[in-house]
Design goal:
It comes from Shewanella morhuae. It is a single chain. This protein is 48% helix and 15% strand. α5 crosses α6, α5 packs across α7 and α6 packs parallel to α8. The protein starts with 5 loop residues before the first helix and ends in a 14-residue tail after the last helix. The relative contact order is 0.18.
Amino acid sequence: MFNILSRFLLPLVMVLGTTSAIAADVVVDTKDPYAMVKAVANKTFDRFHKDKALIDADSDHLKVIVREELMPYVDYKYASYKVLGQYLKDSTEDQRNRFVDAFEGYLVSTYAQAFTEYTNQKVEFSPGVDFSQEKIVDVNIQIIEAGRPPIKVLFKARRLKDDTWKAFDLVAEGVSLLSSKQSEISNLIRQQGIDSVIKMLDERTKEKVVIKAKSGKSQS
């Protein structure tokens, strides 16, 4: 039911998994959206390397890494509200709060699972432009894989009230993750109600990350 997200997550995995500069003490400049994306990529991939033994022992440790290294730079509350769309105004404050928490957990779980699909690709970051007067910017990226056309990806980031930036959407080949999720979740809310959707998101969050062996069988 929620598999549509996976096609958007592989580009994210590629970006976070192909950075060449790996540093233990990367500083994330949240006041520069272009620098922020690169720095978060470095920090996340470095953490994967350092915690490999923990991941091998318990694949759910990928969720810990995603939550600690990636999610602080994702405006999941804003994204959640966008996904709720027309149902935002019809929900209670309690429902909104529970939906935000459930959607964040769902993203963490799904990002973590997506990282198990990574294979080596090259990434080209487009140079940053002047964003001093902007409230929303696009961080453009191309993913290069031998024998295939480049994949065009962009991260949308928004300026917050404190002048810092957070990412809120991923657009792969012109298709917005938020727009797709809004359509999907709106249909589910209309059919089953927001409380049922929150429950489903919570159930997906609890699913264990599965790392598949090359043979296609799950690793023990």
